[in-house]
Amino acid sequence: MAATLGSDVHVWCVPWRGVSAEALFRPLIAAYASVPADDLPIVRGEHGKPWLSAPLGELAFSWSHSGDTALCAIARGDAGFELGVDIERVRPRPRLLALAERFFSPSEAALLRSCTEETRLDMFLALWTSKEAVLKAHGGGLSYGLHRASFHVVEGRAHPVAFDGAIAPATAWTVQPLDVRAGFAGAIAWRGASRTVRLMTQDTEPFPSTP
């Protein structure tokens, strides 16, 4: 599996059965790292971001789950390569505007207020998943502040506008929507130039075994 990765980003979409993300995806990541799953050196950053310690630090990954679906993104880069993924189930959010006013940038909140009722939820989810993907890639998570990554939405796609703090500048990032399955919104982000994203789906376990 490691040989097939190259410079691409692989995103696995699998059923979520309530186990921990680490337990679910450890065998998959181990297959890319070409090591037994029990020997995979997953460690946690200050805010909980999982990563691989040396000598496997060039293999980056990120996971997310919502409803009955889970994602795991895997890419190869320099040690510390920043990669994040997020998925959210599409469901009614009565407090959508209140959440945006509290946690989004002023321009994003204004964008959501001005759009039609029919497009508001999709726009909110495009913003939310893009923001969370960036913050997960950085490692600060939601506690770092959703307002620090500001986007504009055009034709349903969130485009980086202004990032501040340790995640700046916005131009350093690639952020893409993920159309993983009906009823879900997703996004992937990494710091660096554009790459090819390959979506891999699997309805049953186990994952491919370690080479």
TrEMBL record:
Gene Ontology molecular function: holo-[acyl-carrier-protein] synthase activity; magnesium ion binding
GO biological process: lysine biosynthetic process via aminoadipic acid
Highest taxon, organism lineage: Bacteria
Coiled coil: none
Domain 4'-phosphopantetheinyl transferase: start-end pairs: 83-177
Keywords recorded for this protein, A-Z: Transferase
Any single Gene Ontology cellular-component annotation: cytosol
Family the entry assigns: Belongs to the P-Pant transferase superfamily. Gsp/Sfp/HetI/AcpT family.
Name assigned to this protein: 4'-phosphopantetheinyl transferase
Phylogenetic classification of the source organism: Bacteria, Pseudomonadati, Pseudomonadota, Gammaproteobacteria, Lysobacterales
